[in-house]
Amino acid sequence: MIDKKFFGKPKKIKASKLAELCGLQLKGDGDCDISGIATLADATSSDLSFFGNKKYKEDLSKTKAGAVIISEADLAFLPSTVLGLVAKNVMISYAQVSQILYPEKKETAKICKSAKISGKAKIGEGCDIGENVIIEDNVEIGDNVKIGNNCVIEKGCSIGSNGLIRNNVVISHAIIGDNVIINSGAIIGESGFGIIPTGAKMVYVKQLGRVIIGDRVRIGANTTIDRGSVEDTQIGNDTIIDNLVQIAHNVKIGERSIIVSQVGIAGSTKIGNDVVLAGQVGVAGHLEIGDKAVAAAKSGIASNIEAGKIVGGIPAVDVGIWKRQAVFLKMLVSKKDLLRNLGSQANVGLMSALRGSLKNRFFAKKK
Fold it and tell me: Quick check: 291 and 275 in contact, CB under 8 A?
């Protein structure tokens, strides 16, 4: 549920006004007052809900919501008593509506007395700096930046305007653009894994690069982005990085890419624009992943991926091959278990024939 203690009291507004502001079409009778957002199952007559997944078709048929954001194609499933707000993209429209009903509250900017700010740092206008923040020499921070409690921004770093740095963030060796959000616990600019084993001892390679983060980037909680060794680690504009992601030294990620939780990217890999790496993908070092490539969850990427390719599996291969491998393995294991249970030596020939049949079915060369 949406708790007023955390998100405040929602703005009350007519459904028709919401439709006007968000470019939605009204379908149905009435013009209800909207004063909250809820799921289809929990909504009341004063709530707005949304239908963006066919799995919730039954909930839609029973909903008591005052209005539902819905696509034109799904209007047939909407109860006659519920007002439809027809959207081209349900989730984008829902995002717009949520911003209207629950706008961010602008708080009076302040710098807490416990913050330790170097006299050599430059702080822009309208900044809000929390308790126990440390800002070192020659740091430059733009206007209207909010920095949460217990953050450390080390010497020489710069942060553009309108940024949000949540609690317990550590930033070093970094140049950060405008409108960047860094969530709690993230560490930006630590040294990379520059270790050379010699047999007798480990030799540490000094990490002399930086982290360069573009505009409108979002970095999730407890994510770590290492600075470069000699080159810079770079994150392009509008890229979204989820929680618990590890980005190693010299990695370069393009614009508008999506890096989902628990992804690990080894050093010096180059990732293009509009790339999606799903949860727990592992990427080996010194590789190139082309624009608009997609890696399915838990993929292990050990070689270059061409632009536009969709891959999956360990090691990652074309998604079509990956699916065939999964089916083949399942069938082979099931048949082997069956024959083992029969326990007859005569079945050895049948097993051999089965292997040949499966091989021909899934891996025969196309003419």
Answer: yes
Phi, psi of 33, deg, nearest 5: -85, 130
Which residue reads 């007798």 in tokens? 200
| Cβ-count burial 132-157 (b if 16+ within 10 Å, e if not) | ebebbeebbbbebbbbbbbbbbbeeb
Please list, residue by residue across 68-89, b when 16 or more beta carbons sit within 10 angstroms of its beta carbon and e when fewer do.
bbbeeebeeebeeebbbbbbee
Per-residue pLDDT tens digits for 219-265: 999 999 999 999 999 999 999 999 999 999 999 999 999 999 999 99
Tens digit of each residue's pLDDT (9 = 90 or more) over 111-137: 999 999 999 999 999 999 999 999 999
Between CA 141 and CA 148, with CA 145 as vertex, the angle to 5 degrees is 105
Q: What is the pLDDT of residue 176?
A: 98
Q: What is the pLDDT of residue 363?
A: 55
CB atoms within 10 A of CB 95: 12
Residues with catalytic roles: 249
Give residues with Cβ within 8 angstroms of 153, minimum separation 6.
133, 134, 135, 136, 139, 141, 147, 159, 165, 171, 172
- Rg (C-alpha) for the chain, rounded Å, is 27
DSSP three-state, residue 174: strand
Q: Which of 220, 216, 218, 156 lies closest to 187, judged by CA?
A: 220
Asked whether the predicted pLDDT for residue 181 surpasses 90, the reply is: yes
**129 in the Ramachandran plot: left (φ > 0), alpha (ψ -120 to 50) or beta?**
beta
pLDDT at 343: 53
Answer for the pair 128, 110: CB distance below 8 angstroms, yes or no: yes
Cβ-contact 48, 15 below 8 angstroms = yes
